[in-house]
Amino acid sequence: MHGKFVAAMVLAISAVSATAAQSQTTTSTWDGVYTDAQAARGSAKYAQCAMCHGASLEGSGEAPPLTGRFIPDWVGTTLADLFDKIQTTMPLFAPGTLSAGDTTDLIAFLLKANNFPAGANELASSVDVLKTVSFDAAKPRTDTKAVRSMPKR
């Protein structure tokens, strides 16, 4: 009897943990997670990135583009992953020198350049908050029910 209780508790805890992990990512890049003012600050800071990534974010033979095919590379991640990549590897000749605020401003600029909508609140530079924002290439469907057409008579 004791063994069944322990097994039931382990299953219950596992289910709660899985649900908690799924609920951590609650926002999408399509939910307006940055402001236009923040993207403008990021645009000004992008000057040091343009040397490698191009003035129009088109990339070079060495550095990847930051628009277009850039997006699919980040699908299935969160903005915390992009934040970490920028923080630890950029700029090329001085990695790790960007402040957290500069990094989130740059991310806001990248989101705007890739046509993700702006919102009322700035993107936070807290990794815990950024972990809750999924990097979605396509706008998530809000209606989960399939739309069925009426049969023709």
List keywords for this structure.
153 residues, single chain, disordered C terminus, 2 strands, disordered N terminus, Cytochrome Bc1 Complex, Chain D, domain 2, mainly alpha, globular, two-stranded parallel ribbon, 6 helices
How would you describe what is shown here?
The protein has 153 residues and is mainly alpha-helical. It has helices spanning 2-24, 36-45, 47-53, 79-89, 100-113, 127-130, and strands at residues 27-28, 133-134. The protein has a two-stranded parallel sheet with strand order 1-2. The longest helix has 23 residues, at 2-24. The N and C termini lie far apart (62 Å).
Task: List strands and helices in order, with pairings.
Blueprint: H1 2-24, E1 27-28, H2 36-45, H3 47-53, H4 79-89, H5 100-113, H6 127-130, E2 133-134
Parallel strand pairs: 1-2
Helix pairs in contact: 2-5, 4-5
